[in-house]
Amino acid sequence: VQLVESGGGLVQPGGSLRLSCAASGFVFSVFSMTWVRQAPGKGLEWVATINADGRSSTHADSVKGRFTVSRDNAKKTLYLQMNSLKTEDTAMYYCVLGSDIRGSRGQGTQVTVSS
User: Fold this and answer.
1) Of 13, 58, 11, which is closest to residue 34 (Cα–Cα)?
2) pLDDT at 81
3) Terminus-to-terminus CA distance in the chain, angstroms?
4) Which is nearest to 66 in space by CA: 18, 99, 98, 8?
5) Could you give the CA distance from residue 34 to residue 96 in angstroms, rounded to a whole number?
6) What is the pLDDT along the chain (115 residues), one digit of tens a residue?
7) What values do phi and psi take at 48, rounded to 5?
8) Cys staple from 76: which of 28, 56, 97, 104, with CB 3.0 to 4.6 Å?
9) CB–CB of 39/45 below 8 Å?
10) Per-residue model confidence (pLDDT) at position 108
């Protein structure tokens, strides 16, 4: 299993970013996928989960209406569109295989929201 996140960076409050997660080493299209994040000094926080075919997703209340998870099974890629970013969204973001936040994950991509 290999998961490689990208797309993070420094953005001002109110800005947007699109994270990507390139998957390999498993049959991407049969697994649900999850985004989690970890802020400095805090534990893992579930952000969003999408089912295998991409037709159903759920988002944490803290990001609902601002973040959208999606996937392209042909490209074996998971996405997280993040809009109206807040300083409290600052964290390392990870994609996770499956719906359990303790599952296999990549190295992460850093998102910093600051003016």
Assistant:
1) 58
2) 98
3) 37
4) 18
5) 5
6) 999 999 999 999 999 999 999 999 999 999 999 999 999 999 999 999 999 999 999 999 999 999 999 999 999 999 999 999 999 999 999 999 999 989 999 999 999 999 9
7) -165, 155
8) 28
9) yes
10) 97
Residue 73: burial class (beta carbons within 10 Å; 0-12, 13-18, 19+):
middle
Using left for φ > 0, alpha for ψ between -120 and 50, and beta otherwise, residue 17 falls in beta
Cα 72 from Cα 53, distance rounded (Å): 9
- 67: Cβ contacts below 8 Å, ≥ 6 apart: 47, 48, 59, 80, 81, 82, 83
Residue 79 β-bridge partners: 20, 70
Distance CA 71, CA 62 (A): 21
Record the tokens describing residue 63, joined without a space: 């990001």
Residue 52 is predicted with a pLDDT of 97
* Residues present in the chain in total: 115
pLDDT at 64: 98
